[in-house]
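Structural prep section.
Before we set up the soaks we want a predicted structure of the protein with zinc ion in place, mainly to decide which crystallisation condition to try first. Input record follows.
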Amino acid sequence: MSASNHSSAGASSPSAPSAPPPPAVPKSRIPFCPACGSPTKLAVPDGDEKMRAVCSSCGRVHYENPKMVVGCLVEHDNKVLLCRRKIEPAYGLWTLPAGYLEVGESAAEGASRETLEEACADVEIVSPFAQLDIPLIGQSYIIFRARMKTPSFSPGSESLECELFALDDIPFDSLAFSSIIVTLRMYIEDVKAGNIKFHYCTINKRIGAGPSDLRSFDIDNHLAVRETSAQQSHWSSIELVMGEGAFGHRMASGHICGRLFKLLLEL
Ligand SMILES: [Zn+2]
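Run finished without errors. Recording the tokens verbatim:
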């Protein structure tokens, strides 16, 4: 059905005036059909608006959706547990225990499992701390605050070492991912302000930033919900806050429902 890709401009010659490069043909990131193994091609299926990987043989449409990464911010004696990665990417750099959510488990279960795998720490979830979307790479992080059931940890097979860091000693120059930088900055700010909030934000890489340039990003759509209840784990009373955010951005206030929740919006 598609038009032939053969050029009608004739054979090219090394001495010919340089012609504009042919338009880049987008390639599917699902090159072969998971169902039958045949090559896929990019096409817009009927009723759809986006290019999808469509099997050239069986016609199945394969969708590429974001992946969810789940992890734990393990608190112990005013310190947090970090793991130094034994695997690529970011070999040798520090991270929170986190990884891809598996089918069949909840986000909280996945975060606990990753913490057990990477830090051999058996934890209980305290509360959700942050959801961070990274649209450019199709990832969404959910990070939970957690505590160790017994104060015991050691490096798992994917970690070189694990260590508890005081907040002032966190190795920000040796962190593995922008998501971890953002999470820990927000956490430190909250702890120092005496009120730990739940955060949502989008991490957008700046134009021209390379994959290893962890600091060229913007934080957008930052929402934070703070508890005023004495019971931190009981999400019943949440108050609006105004002021400087984790990244020095101006905050403005807003009300939602006027009842339980008030939100902090980063402009
Ligand atoms: Zn197929």
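Observations: The pocket of zinc ion is lined by residues 33, 35-36, 38, 55, 57-58, 60 (CB under 6 Å).
Flagged for discussion at group meeting.
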